Each structure stands twice: as C-alpha cells, then as structure tokens.
Amino acid sequence: MNSQESDLQSLRALVRDLAARVERLEREIGMQGPAPGHVLGAHTQPSTAPPPHQPVSHPLPVPPLPPAPAAQFAAPAPEIDLESRIGSHWLNRIGISAVLIGVSYFLKFAFDNNWIGPTGRVSIGLLAGIAVVVWSETFRTRGYKVFSYSLKAVGVGVLYLSLWAAFQMYGLIPSGVAFLAMVIVTASTATLAIKQDAEILAAIALTGGFSTPLLLSTGQNREIQLFLYVALLSAASVALVVFKPWRRLLVLSYAGTLVLYCAWYSEYYRRDEFAVTFTFATLFFAIFAAAPLLSKIPEEAAPLPYLAAALTFINTGVYFLQAYAMFEEIDKLAMAWFALALAAVHIGLSHIIRPREPANAEPLRLLHLALAVALITIAIPIRLDGHWITVGWLVEAGVLLWVADRIAARFLHYLAAAALALGVVRLLAFDDFIVDTVLLNSRMATYVLAMAVLALLAWFSMKRETDFDRQLAAVAVLAVSALALAGLSREIGDYYARQTSASGNGVARWSPAMALERTRLVIARDFTYSALWMAYGALLMVIGFWRKSAFFRWQALFLIAATIVKVFIYDVSQLDRGYRILSFMILGVLLLAVSFVYQKDWLKLSSQQAKRDGNNKEGSPQS
User: Per-residue pLDDT tens for 396-409?
Assistant: First the structure.
C-alpha cells in the first residue's frame, strides 16, 4: 500500500506541475483558465510537498505562445439575393440617372433662356464631371465600391459629352484639342482602373476610347489616322490584359475595333485603297490573334477557355471575309493562296500554345488546327473547278490521315474523316462527268481515289482502340463497297446511253427499227446491272470466306438478297427470254455455290454455335 500511495502522490504532483504551466501560459497570452486546484475535480486534495525520494524537477522555461490567429477560413460571403441587388445596385443607378435627367432639364431650361453661354455650359459640364469623379472616391473609401464606380461612369460620360459639345455643337475648340482631351480622359480612367484594380473602370475607359472617333467625326476620310488610333487602343487593351486577368476586355476591344472598321469600310473604301486597308485589317487580326496567348489567365478560369476560343474563331472568320471581299475584285488565285497562308499561321499558333499555355488551353490549340483545316478546305473550291474540287478534298483527307497517324493526333483523324465525307458527297451528288471511254476515264479515277482514301481511313481507324473508331472503320468499309457499285453502275449506264445515242445518229425521224434497237439496249443494260450485282456479291462472299470475316459475308448476303428481288420482280417482267433465262441460271448457280459452302461448314460455324450454346447452358440457373 505504501508503494501505491507513493505512486498516486507522484501522479498528483505531476498533474499540478502541468496545471501550473498551463495557467502561466494562459496568463501570458491573455486567457483565463480554471484554477490549478480544480484540475483534478472536486476530490483533489490540497497541495502537499512531494516525498523526499521523488523530488519535483523545476519546470523548463517555456517560450510565450503567439497570439491566437484569426480563423483561417473566413465564412463565405452570403450570396446577394434579388432584393439586396435591387436595393444596392439597380436603385442607385436609377437614382443617378434621375438626378442627371433633372440636372439636364434644368440646364436645358437655362440654355434656352440664355442664362448660360456656350463657354459656361461646357465649363459647367467639365467641372461637374471632374467633381463627380472626385466625389465618388469618398464612397469608395467607405466601402461602397459599386456606388463609387457608378458615379465614376457618370462623371467620365459627362466629360466626354462636354468635350463633344465643345467641338461639334459650339466649335469652341479645334478637333486636335478635343481629341487630345478625350485621350487624356481615357488614359486617366485606365490609370485609375489599374490603380484600384477595377475591371469596370477599364471597360469604361475602352468604351470612351472607341467612342472618341465617333464623337469627333467630321465626315472626312482619314483612314490612316483612324486606324492607327484604333490599332494603338487595341494594342493597349492587350497590354492591359497581360498584367490583369480581365479577358472580357478583349471582347469589348474587338467589338469596338470591328464597329469602327466596318463603319469606315462601308462608307469610304475604294479599290485603290486596297493596300492600306488590307494592311490594317491584317494588323488588327494579328493583335487579337496574339491576345489569347499573351493575356493573363485568372486563377478561377474555367477548364475550357471559351472566351479565348470564341474570340479566335470570330477574329479569323471576320478577317477571312474581309480579305475575300477585297480579293474578289482583284484575283481569285490570290485569295486561294491567302487562305493557305492563313492556315499556315494557325498551324504555327497551335504549336506556340503548347509550351506557353497551361493544360486548359488544349481546346484553343485544337481550334487553331480545326481552323487551319477549314481554311485549306475552303481554298480548294476557290482555286479549283469541277471534279478537281472533289479530288482536292480527297487528297487533303488522305494527307491529314497520314499526318494524324504520324503524330498520333486523333483530332486530325476526325477532321480528315470530315474532309473525306465532303469529297464523297460532292462526288455522288454534284460532280457531272462527261466521259467517252469505259472505266479508263476521269470519273472512275476519282471513284478509285475516293475508295483508296476510305480504305486508308478504315486502316488507321482499326489501329485505334475506341469503339467509335472501330465503327468508323466499318462505315468506311461499307462506303468502299457502295462507291464501287455506284461507280461501276454509272459506267454501265453511260456506256448504254452512248450506244443509244449512236443508234439514233443519222436517222431523221423515229422508226420501228430505231425503237427496237433502243429497247434491246435497255434490256441489255438492265441485265448488266443484275450481273454486276451478282458478281460483286460473289466477290464479297469470297473475301468473307477467305478472311473469315462475317462483316464481308453479311455485305455479300445483303447484296445477293437485293439481286434476288431484282431478278424475281423486275427481270421476269422486263427482260426478254434469253436474258431472263441467263439471269436465273447465273443467280441459281451463285446461290447453290454459296449454300454449298455454308453446308460444307468450312468456317466451322456450327461448332462455334454449339460452343456458345454450351456456354449459355453452363451459365444458366439450371446448370
């Protein structure tokens, strides 16, 4: 018992020592804690000296603790509901508008009664604008930023309007002075935006900057001065977003540039101004093409840069249409080369993005590649004519397939499939060939090229692992068969059409002999169609058995079924006795041969079916 009491006393001494340390630390950091005597609860005994054989060591000095930090995670700001937004945002703007309207009515009343002259009116406007801007700072320092920026917008607007009135209405100052004053207002607003880190002020500065040429317009053609100013303003907006994550300003800047350019173009452009106008259009395109690469990406940027992608797409489209409108009057060949050059620019931009932009810029890189392919596709019909457009698209698709396989770019693979689809659709629906020979002609050569590119698409698609690519390969193989049949059928139709036309040469009018000859040619043509289908079906069946491919065998069965329908329904009623007998005999021999091959079970289809049935029984609940 003595040892147990000694151990208990030692534990109590240790707890008292710890309690004393905690109390001292709490006093040092300004906190109040419970008295040391209450640490052990109500049953704690009074302090007693430790036994001689258990001396209590003096506590080591403990450094003071730093003040308790504030909560690391501040509570999220409550969302602004509709009522708060109406009260804090909308009402203040409506109120400002009401005040301005009231002041404007008062000033108009004063102006109408000649209380204030032109100089006084402009001076009042300038002083009022400056005063409102200065006054708005009082609200910003008190935390009312939204109200402050609204007042600044009003003040800056009053300054622009006052300068406009001084030049346009009263002629108090020359255009140069008015322009310089507006530039100063724009620059001051932009400086204030940077200093206060306010994107809305930067937007106000850009709006005023792009409004300046409209406010100071005199109806004269000053292309170089106007576009130099617009180019400097656009470059300044790009420079601004390099340091600030204000990408939305690029949209505003591009819209202002486009409005001023289109307004000038529709009014003043003449063909003799082509060089200067095209140079500035290229400069504007270059500025906004480089903007997404140089602009600072905000930390909260979305995974996909939709804004940059939209700006890139619109910028390229507008630039191409501008060039097309100007080149159309000069040289069609030059426009095709321009499209190819623009495609090369986008290919270069796609390579620049990869090392400089983060992973979320991958859609922008792919967009540049897509635009390059689209421009190449457009350049082909601009430069070529007739079936050469189809040939150009087919060659483009083949080159893209090869490049996509070399660099493992699935996106290019799909773009190649799209270009190939364009070529095939044009070949089947739009191309009109005039041929004089059978098979060895431009039409059959184009069909062979299309089938070769389709086979290439199937080959490269089968090398990929996704189900979509395998389905794409299957569609390509089916398209090869369909194109072969379509091409050969057109050859048959044209051959008999030439024969029919030749039978009527030298005959002045219709005769029974000519009608009989044309009927014979129609019957021969229809029989040749049946023979072609049967022969092609037999070829597909041979390939299916040779390659052990059910895909080819099903194609053959489908084509043979179509041939059976044609022979039993059409040939019976239309062909004469000789062709009818021949059609049935050839079809019967083909069907018997195919049936014998299946009954011979060369592909072991019955054993495979039995194996599948056995597996199904083993997996059934009864097994």
Answer: 999 999 999 998 88
